[in-house]
Amino acid sequence: MKRFKVIKDFLSCLKENDIAIFAGEDLSKEAYEYDREGNFYVLDSPGVASSIALGIAMNTKKRVFIFSGDGECLMELGAYAQAAVSRCKNIFCVILDNDSYQAAGGSPTIFRSVTSMTGVLFNFGFLFQNYTKHFTGRTPIKIMTQKIGSLVGPAAILIEVDKGYKKDLKEIDLSKKEIKDRIIKFIGNEELGTSLFVPPYSLDHFDVNLDGGMV
Amino acid sequence: MTAKGFWEYLCEKLNYRFFAGVPCKELKPLYDSMSTKFMHYIPAVKENVALGLVSGSFLAGHKAAVLMNFDRLYNTLDWIKSFNIRYHIPVLIIAYDSENDEKIRKALAAYKIPSRIAKNMITDLKYITNKIEKEEIPGVLILRKGVLDE
Questions:
Q1: Measured between beta carbons, which residues in chain B are less than 8 angstroms from residue A44?
Q2: Structure pTM?
Q3: Torsion (CA) A180, B37, A206, A94 in degrees, nearest 10
Q4: Phi, psi (rounded to 5 degrees) for A173
Q5: Which residues contact B45 (CB under 8 A, 6 or more apart)?
Q6: Which residue in A69, B53, B55, B61 has its CB near the most CB atoms, within 10 A?
Q7: How far A137 CA sits from the closest chain B CA (Å)?
Q8: Assigned domain for B50 exists
């Protein structure tokens, strides 16, 4: 499935108050086609987006989804380990695996050659989900919205996508300062609240569990 | 100023509450005197991860600082330039310089990242935090031997 289609469908499953962070220029441009106030684009700092997402997740109750490629994930496995051990219930790492460094001309990555990347992420401490079949098998968006809505982090979501990216993407016409100011305003908007799924049995410990994510 | 006094001033007077860093032998007095009463500290796996964590904290509305060795700061300059400077994200970087490293100070100047060698801790902390918050850029407080009381 095309990556931009996955991004479009995934974003339509998110709730109004969810934060979505995109790592890299191509991924950001594809996501910008479906721009929303809660989107944050990290355009040219490879390897730092996942840490930024975790820093936000540790300081808000809103759910934070970080979208990155398999190359970015490999480059920053330490940051993924950091996210997994944080025990933050509101961090979700979405890995869009196209088996290549798309931004660098499509050279292959070793992501699919690792004996079990599932095992690596699971053993870091992530709840691991492979949503490839859901997005390519046309699971209805309504069902996907329910599935994603009930996720509890830290979770790693793998989706295998086709190589290549959408042509003729428009430039992001927001300045970096505007992108920053917009996300600060969005995170600070307490009226939006959180859509973090809370199982009924842990309602009493809601705040405690979130703060407990801190080391 | 003692290490404990340093934290109390930075956290309670200047309202910095979220910290991340990578261990540095020379910063041990600061690590030993951290208090979970008024601060959160995240031991990061790498300097750029620490930088990302505190940048995220700033985006979520909390002032934040990184602790690292001055030598390692050199490795993070690309990230500071490509993210913190371009996106106008002010984070305080507290770095220990054991070797009076002019090369890094020159690199900081080239990137237009303000730095201040701590001599009078309160004055210098106020100066660097005011500067980074006003100009929305990252800045470095450089600690050297003897600046914190044993």
A1: 82, 86
A2: 0.91
A3: 40
A4: -90, 20
A5: A78, A79, A81, A82, B22
A6: B53
A7: 35
A8: yes
ipTM of the complex, rounded to two decimals: 0.94
Taking contacts as CB-CB distances below 8 angstroms, the residues of chain B near A53 are 56
Q: Measured between CA atoms, how close is A192 to chain B, in angstroms?
A: 14
In a domain, B148, yes or no: no
Give which of A43, A59, A86, A186 to mutate to test B binding, by max B Cβ within 10 Å: A59
List per-residue pLDDT tens for chain B, 150 residues long: 899 999 999 999 999 999 999 988 888 889 999 987 888 999 999 999 999 999 999 999 999 999 999 888 888 999 999 999 999 999 999 999 888 778 888 889 999 999 999 999 999 999 999 999 999 999 999 998 888 876
| CATH at residue B100 | 3.40.50.970
**B149 inside domain:** no
Q: What is the pLDDT of residues A37-79, one digit of tens each?
A: 999 999 987 789 999 999 999 999 999 999 999 888 988 899 9
Asked if A79 lies within 8 A of B62 by C-beta distance, the reply is no
Rounded-to-integer distance, Cα A174 and Cα A167, Å: 20
Q: How many domains does chain B have?
A: 1
Domain membership of residue B150 (yes or no) is no
